[in-house]
Amino acid sequence: MAEGEVSAVPRKSLSWPSPLRGAASRDLAPGVALDIQSQPWLNPALQRPSKCPTLWVPISTVRDSIGYGYTTKEPCIVVMTLSRWLPITMLLLSSLVGSPAAWASDEPPEEPRFRWVGEVERIFPREFPDRLSGLTHWLETGPVAASPTGLRVDFAHYPSSAEVVSFVGELEGLYPDLVDTYEVGQSWQGRPIMGLRLGNEATGDPEARPALYLDGQHHAREAISQQIVLYTIWYLLSNYGSDPLVTHLLNTRTVYAVPSVNVDGNDIWLADDFLQRRTANPESSDDDLDNLLDEDPANAMGYGTYLVYRYDFDQEWADSHPDDPFAPGWQGHYLGSEYLGVFDEEGNEIPQLDEDDDGSTNEDPIGGVDANRNYGALWELGDANPASPLYRGPAVWSEPESVAVRDFVLGRPRIVTALSYHSGADLILHPWAWSGDEALPDALLYELLSRKGSQLTEGNGFLGSPHAWSARALYAAPGTTMDWLYAQGICAWTPEAYGASSIVFAERVDASGSFRVAVSVGVGFNPDPSDILQTAERWNRFTMYVLAATPHLGLTAVAADEGLLTLTVGNDGFIPVEVTVSATGAGGGVATETLPYLQAGERQVSVPYPGQPGLQSLSVRLAARSLAGTTNKEVEGQEVMLWIVVRPGPDTVWVAQGLVEEFTDLGSFFGPGGWLAPRVWDTPDVYHLGPPLVHEVFLPLSHSRS
Ligand SMILES: [Zn+2]
User: Fold this and answer.
1) Which residue has the higher pLDDT, 535 or 1?
2) Which residues sit with Cβ closer than 5 angstroms to ligand 1, an ion?
3) Cα(119) to centroid of ligand 1, in Å?
4) What is the pLDDT averaged over residues 139-167?
5) 532 alpha carbon to ligand 1 midpoint, in Å?
6) How far is the CA of 421 from the centre of ligand 1 (A)?
7) Higher confidence at residue 509 or residue 112?
8) I need a labelling partner for 452 at 20 to 30 A (CA). Which of 16, 52, 637, 669 fits?
9) pTM (predicted TM-score)
10) How far is the CA of 422 from the centre of ligand 1 (A)?
């Protein structure tokens, strides 16, 4: 589908109760993926489906921590069906098992994997048990920031890529001095990939300032990640001039944003296939390995539709759990399942065409390449199987989507920090993604900043999101955006912003042992439209914190005494910098001093100045080199002109107005603890497998204060 043909998506909530509502516990729904080793049905030695193609997946015990954070421990084996219609448990596991390159057996299907079992009436009840709602968090009604009115993106629906293009244009019209927009690339199917620059142009050149880079939706079905980036854009623009923190940040820093990297995937996800993850690369998607490409995709199976299964349990279990067949222990009473089809929210079946007449449907969908495995960060270690959801692509940088991000970032050398938003879990992930063992130069800084993120993401009904070393909490993932950004000297995170059960509901069929079970990854990875705003607001807090942590230098005071000029320099961000102060007098004399470490505080340097009476000028250059990331680089350089009047008697210094900016303690904007969260927000040890992080040694703030 070409850009422009994308139809607007109805702005409506789903017609049944939000799966997010109804409980406020940390319980996960349906016992899915928990305590795997104790589940005999997952033990291939005990039960291996004879007809069903299986993949033998060496993973570890998948352990639930908080929300959908998982970690791995001892090895075990899990059977996974090869079908595109993964039964629900496997669907959830599929995001956890790492590289399919490790899969040892891969038998082709011998017969159609599902068969029609008859009419299913009234698929979707208006109410369903709380236990099945699978919520990670219960969002209580609470204060949230204002949402826009009259614009194409309202944070009450998931927009098409065309709507986002319109929205971005509307913002540029509303806030011409604060935002510039660019087309940073074009997708495989020709859609524009939009980029924005936010920063007050009246207070200097935004390109010269230290900057934060934001992106979302590398993975199509993680649509909330685009909404989170768009919300922060909206928040910054609409609060400029009224909110003191926002105003200060846009006056002193720059934000670059690519709300959706995978714009093709966004529209495919909305309209045709809510399972879409990868790009729409037309040449790398022989998912069923039959030498044909994309020959049997899903039909009208977009967000708002559901896969429906019949799950069979023994009669005793069904009788004792009529409202909740997935109560703990269900696996021991599970007899099997059958796929029934795709249904809309009214319970109408959406026919799926067998477009290649091979007896299966939807076995070779559109695309593509995992855009978050296509970056030049140990790409070669990635998954080379084109049928894998984690396919790295035929070559590094093969995707126009990843190239667009690369070129956009490389063209902005002042980017110091970055957040690349995803969903499907609830975690604040930091490098490395490719290794859980390789030395992490900024482990302590990451621990401090991420811990604060855990604190900030709690509230308004949410639990704080655990923070973790990516490869330790999930699995090794080479070729990722985050690792590539970090390798450019950028302090980067991958927040996993939302994860819930993909089971929408289960309903017993009469008094039998059978249940109709509706499943949607669209629901599992993305909040109900009515909760987009609250979810985005939650993550906006962390984004604001990282933006404030982005260093910014200022000359905060000047004093003169007996031929010495004392300059006070502040970095009001938490990320430390090395500062070089160079003062050049009108007569050409130069004095240079280096402050090796300046973080959220002020330091003083003294430079001599000529003592003869009269008016003298002094040019002061402040330069900051970042001290985070694997490649330190100059992230700020500014010239300040001082006019000095030297008179007999006490020295007098006059500074041209506006050149000295008062130091602001930005930490005070972030609640209890300021910049730092207390240890109660430490990540559980399960996230720190491997060499332990040293919690006792933290960078003391006092170290940086004069
Ligand atoms: Zn993702």
Assistant:
1) 535
2) 219, 222, 422
3) 36
4) 78
5) 17
6) 8
7) 509
8) 637
9) 0.79
10) 4
- Summarised one tens digit per residue, pLDDT across range 381-413 is 999 998 888 999 999 999 999 999 999 999 999
DSSP one-letter code for 463: P
Q: How remote is the C-alpha of 137 from its chain's centroid?
A: 17
Task: Tell me the CA–centroid distance for residue 217 and ligand 1, in Å.
Answer: 7
C-alpha 216 – ligand 1 centre gap (Å): 9
Looking at the chain, the whole-number percentage of residues with pLDDT higher than 90 is 43
CA of 630 from ligand 1 middle (Å) equals: 24
Which of helix, strand or coil describes residue 516?
strand
Report which of residues 290 and 152 the model is more confident about: 152
| Ranges of each domain in the chain | 164-267+373-500+532-549, 554-668
Query: CA-based angle 588:623:629, to the nearest 5?
Result: 155
Could you tell me the distance, in angstroms and rounded to a whole number, from the CA of residue 165 to the centre of ligand 1? Answer: 22
Of 156, 253, 172, the closest CA to residue 214 belongs to 253
Residue 612, both tokens? 């003869």
Burial call 650-677: b when 16+ CB within 10 Å, e when fewer: ebebebeeebbbebbebbebbeeebbbb
How many Å lie between the centroid of ligand 1 and the Cα of residue 62? Answer: 19
2.60.40.10, 2.60.120.260, 1.10.260.40, 3.40.190.10: CATH of 554-668: 2.60.40.10
The Cα–Cα gap between 639 and 582 comes to: 9
Question: Average of pLDDT values for 436-459?
Answer: 88
Give the Cα separation of 19 and 35 in Å (integer).
Answer: 23
Q: How many CA atoms lie within 13 A of 618 on its CB side?
A: 31
Q: Does the domain at residues 164-267+373-500+532-549 carry the CATH identifier 3.40.630.10?
A: yes
Distance 424 CA to ligand 1 centre (A): 7
Please list, residue by residue across 194-221, b when 16 or more beta carbons sit within 10 angstroms of its beta carbon and e when fewer do.
bbbbbbbeeeeebbebbbbbbbbbbbbb
User: In Å, what is the CA distance from 691 to each residue of 72, 215, 443, 444, 469?
Assistant: 15, 31, 11, 13, 11
Ligand 1 centre from 372 Cα, in Å? 7
pLDDT at res. 702 = 31
Question: Which range, of 21-25, 177-181, 192-196, 481-485, averages the lowest pLDDT?
Answer: 21-25
**Ligand 1 centre distance from Cα of residue 277 (Å):** 8
* Distance of alpha carbon 607 from alpha carbon 609, whole angstroms: 6
Q: For residue 610, how far is the Cα from the chain centroid? A: 54
Ligand 1 centroid vs 33 CA: distance in angstroms?
19
| Tens-place pLDDT, residues 562-612 | 677 788 999 999 999 999 999 887 666 778 899 999 999 999 998 877 666
